[in-house]
Specification:
single chain; 5-stranded antiparallel beta sheet; 25% helix
Length: 160
């Protein structure tokens, strides 16, 4: 596991998956959590949001393109990692709004996914989120700043 990005607001950790598929994703994230939080176990709230019992930090998890990513912050945080894929074009009508402005469809999707996670509101959908480049406006939940990082052909979005 390596520290991929460190800011005054959050740290991003990344690790290649230990094996392909869901089993590899789960195993890799579990290893990362134990390493980051001194042997602690990953838990999930009823909403599905990840947390670590007894740790006073917000975390967000994503996996894609052969990697697992964990964002850690003192405040609500969301992270998404994605590879470019044709499927986004086919489903764009499900998540894009006329008000959205982003560098690419992949930027819009990852920003919306990260902002959804950072919102902590299970009733919000990606269609409720308007992306304006490096900001995401969430209906009834305010605004989140979005930071983007490139890793080879992958895009990582962090909402805070």
């Amino acid at each position: 596991m390596k520290l991929f990005a460190a800011t005054p607001i959050y740290n991003i950790y990344i690790k290649e998956l230990s094996a392909p598929g869901r089993a590899g994703e789960k195993a890799t994230v579990g290893q990362m959590v134990k390493e980051l939080f001194y042997g602690a176990e990953l838990s999930h709230a009823i909403s599905g949001a990840p947390f670590v019992e007894g740790i006073d930090k917000h975390i967000s998890i994503s996996h894609g393109g052969g990697y697992a990513v964990i964002a850690v912050s003192d405040k609500p945080i969301g992270v998404d990692i994605e590879a470019p894929r044709e499927q986004l074009e086919r489903i764009r009508h499900k998540f894009m709004r006329s008000e959205d402005c982003a560098e690419s469809l992949l930027h819009a999707w990852t920003a919306k996914e990260a902002a959804f996670k950072a919102s902590g509101n299970a009733s919000v959908t990606v269609h409720d989120i308007v992306v304006k480049y490096n900001s995401a406006y969430i209906t009834g939940n305010g605004c989140k700043t979005i930071d983007f990082y490139n890793l080879d052909s992958l895009l990582i979005a962090v909402a805070h």
